[in-house]
């Protein structure tokens, strides 16, 4: 019995190319198995076969029988899965599995075997060793030697300041706001393009996020928009070093100085990024990092606050640990939080920091490949890299100009995922989302345009240059196929 998920991939050999195109939209994997009246497979047909037939002058009403691939490769249902998938190659991407009578029993796709996630952690260092040490010594909670070791190595990497582990990047931001006294009736300026946590923490602090537009050249907060958004209630700015590219910090810090505002750098996506030769995180009053599983380094969940200001650090230490006095046990000076990181998480973080230089080198190699290949495709804008910036490319994100490329961002995304390549649209503008007023703060053209055309490609520490080459190969093939379709429509 044919599995219901692939029954739509069967198509009568006498059917037309037009009907085959309609059927392809119902099946999975972009392939039809052309069968006779006994459902024996005689050939396979892909959307590419149909395009090539039409370009060769065939009519849309012609039969698939003269255009299907009769010399297709097939697997057998009486051999193991591993043996069948060996037949998949760069050119053989659809493998019908047949019984002894030539009937379809399964379909295996190249995407099933070769799937690229947008990002995934790399845990090939001392992570297991250090975690097992925590378990064997029973130091598994928020105290232990790995907390200090993780904080120390983080400070050495940044070349200054003091670091404080937290339970997440979000709690790091909230802790910074609380330590700086941001609260009721205050306003905090936030870029309109960022992950929602940046605005959420402002609301949880009792303040109001005031959105400003991004600069189209950097995708980060536009310094020119900040000053116009300042009111008598404004107390802070949270510049977000989006997708690994630093904000233009000098004008931001100049505005903050003139208006006596605090600056909290959201560095969740930018560990290792530099602004004019300085690591991000220690330029403002507080820098906040995230170690979620998709970040440059991970502790599963976790975050870090960093600052050069000792009084701010001491206040964050107090608030992070329930507001308890260091001198008197269980004596609460303030109603603080439990924002502590566990020793086991810090153990993973230490191992990750030991590999960070290699992680960043690997990303540089991926970026060089993506830049070199994708910059040659008209209609694709590669990520920004300002002369004053070192972009660590948390996610390699591109912009799609549909008017030039003949394929939209969403179409490209769907076709990439059909080939086993995961991808993500960039963050939608905050001002349009229900949690933040659904458009009540006005219009933000740069944020809105970026959201319509921005797409993030696979970018992770474990991704090889060969994987990046394959992503580029698929994008080029999609672009070229869409050019053929456009040519057919114009004919």
Structural descriptors:
single chain; 491 residues; alpha/beta; CBS-domain; Aspartate Aminotransferase, domain 2; Aspartate Aminotransferase, domain 1; seven-stranded mixed beta sheet; four-stranded antiparallel beta sheet; 20 strands; 36% helix; elongated
Tell me briefly what this model is:
This protein is of the alpha/beta class and 491 residues long. 36% of the residues lie in helices and 16% in strands.
Explain this structure to me?
By secondary structure, this protein is of the alpha/beta class. Helices cover 36% and strands 16% of the residues. It has three domains: 7-113, CBS-domain, CATH 3.10.580.10; 127-354, Type I PLP-dependent aspartate aminotransferase-like (Major domain) (Aspartate Aminotransferase, domain 2, 3-Layer(aba) Sandwich), CATH 3.40.640; 357-490, Aspartate Aminotransferase, domain 1. Strands 7-15-14-11-10-8-9 form a seven-stranded mixed β-sheet, with helices on both faces. A four-stranded antiparallel β-sheet has the order 16-18-20-19. The protein has a three-stranded mixed β-sheet with strand order 1-2-3. Helix 5 packs antiparallel against helix 12 and helix 13 (356-374) packs parallel to helix 17 (465-490). It is elongated. The two termini are 43 Å apart.
């Amino acid at each position: 019995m044919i599995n219901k998920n692939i029954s739509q991939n069967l198509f009568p050999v006498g059917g037309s190319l037009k009907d085959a195109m309609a059927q392809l939209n119902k099946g999975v994997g972009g392939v039809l198995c052309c069968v006779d009246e006994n459902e024996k497979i005689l050939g396979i047909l892909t959307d590419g076969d149909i395009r090539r037939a039409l370009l060769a002058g065939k009519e849309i009403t012609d039969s698939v029988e003269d255009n299907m691939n009769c010399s297709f490769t097939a697997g057998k249902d009486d051999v193991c899965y591993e043996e069948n998938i060996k037949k998949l190659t760069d050119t053989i991407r659809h493998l019908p599995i047949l019984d002894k009578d030539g009937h379809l029993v399964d379909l295996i796709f190249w995407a099933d075997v070769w799937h690229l996630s947008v990002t995934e952690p790399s845990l090939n260092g001392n992570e297991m060793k250090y975690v097992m040490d925590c378990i064997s010594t029973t130091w598994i909670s928020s105290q232990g030697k790995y907390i200090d070791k993780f904080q120390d190595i983080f400070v050495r990497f940044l070349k200054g300041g003091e670091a404080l582990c937290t339970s997440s990047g979000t709690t790091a931001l909230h802790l910074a706001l609380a330590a700086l006294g941001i609260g009721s009736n205050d306003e905090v300026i936030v870029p309109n393009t960022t992950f929602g946590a940046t605005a959420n923490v402002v609301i949880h602090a009792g303040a109001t996020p005031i959105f400003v537009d991004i600069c189209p050249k950097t995708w980060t907060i536009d310094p020119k928009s900040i000053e116009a958004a300042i009111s008598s209630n404004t107390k802070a700015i949270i510049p977000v070093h989006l997708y690994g590219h630093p904000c233009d910090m000098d004008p931001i810090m100049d505005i903050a100085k003139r208006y006596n505002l605090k600056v909290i750098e959201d560095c969740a996506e930018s560990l290792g990024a530099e602004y004019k030769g300085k690591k991000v995180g220690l330029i403002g009053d507080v820098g906040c990092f995230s170690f979620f599983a998709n970040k440059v380094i991970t502790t599963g969940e976790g975050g870090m606050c960093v600052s050069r200001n000792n009084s701010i650090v001491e206040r964050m230490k107090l608030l992070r640990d329930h507001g308890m006095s260091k001198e008197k046990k269980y004596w609460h000076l303030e109603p603080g939080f439990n924002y502590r990181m566990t020793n086991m998480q810090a153990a993973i973080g230490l191992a990750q920091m030991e590999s960070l230089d290699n992680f960043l080198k690997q990303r540089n190699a991926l970026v060089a490949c993506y830049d070199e290949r994708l910059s040659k495709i008209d209609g694709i804008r590669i990520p920004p890299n300002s002369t004053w910036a070192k972009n660590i490319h948390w996610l390699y994100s591109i912009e799609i100009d549909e008017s030039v490329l003949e394929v939209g961002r969403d179409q490209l995304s769907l076709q990439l995922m059909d080939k086993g390549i995961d991808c993500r649209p960039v963050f939608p503008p905050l001002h349009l989302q229900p949690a933040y007023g659904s458009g009540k703060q006005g219009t933000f053209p740069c944020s809105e345009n970026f959201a319509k055309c921005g797409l993030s490609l696979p970018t992770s520490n474990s991704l090889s240059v060969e994987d990046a080459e394959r992503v580029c190969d698929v994008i080029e093939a999609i672009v070229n196929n869409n050019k053929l379709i456009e040519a057919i429509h114009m004919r």
